[in-house]
Amino acid sequence: MTALDTTAVRERPAGPDDAAAAQSFRDAMAQLAAPVSVITALDPDGRRRGFTASSVSSVSLDPPLILAGVALTSSCHATLTTTPEFVVNVLGAQHRDLARRFATRDADRFAGGGFAPWEDSGTPYLPDAALLVRCRTARIVRAGDHDLVLATPVEFRHGTADTAPLLWYRRGFHTARPHGA
Question: Quick check: 146 and 74 in contact, CB under 8 A?
Answer without folding.
Answer: no
